[in-house]
Design a protein that fits this description.
Elements lengths: L9 H9 L9 E7 L7 E2 L2 E9 L2 E8 L4
Antiparallel strand pairs: 1-4, 2-3, 3-4
Length: 68
Amino acid sequence: MDPPYRNSAIGEIITKVANSKLVGTNTIVVVTHSIHLTLEEKYPPLSLIKERRHGDSCIAIYHKEVAP
């Protein structure tokens, strides 16, 4: 996902994608965003597995949690 970097609605967008048919078992979602925006560690059913910063950009990598 590459939404506008400073869009404060990124969390809402991630939530919508996370709960859509686009995200299946073992899906990885990669989101680029501004370092000035803090993303949540969880957007159920997605969980943050890694975050990297590069200059003014941040890359957050989420994985879909498998239901027990």
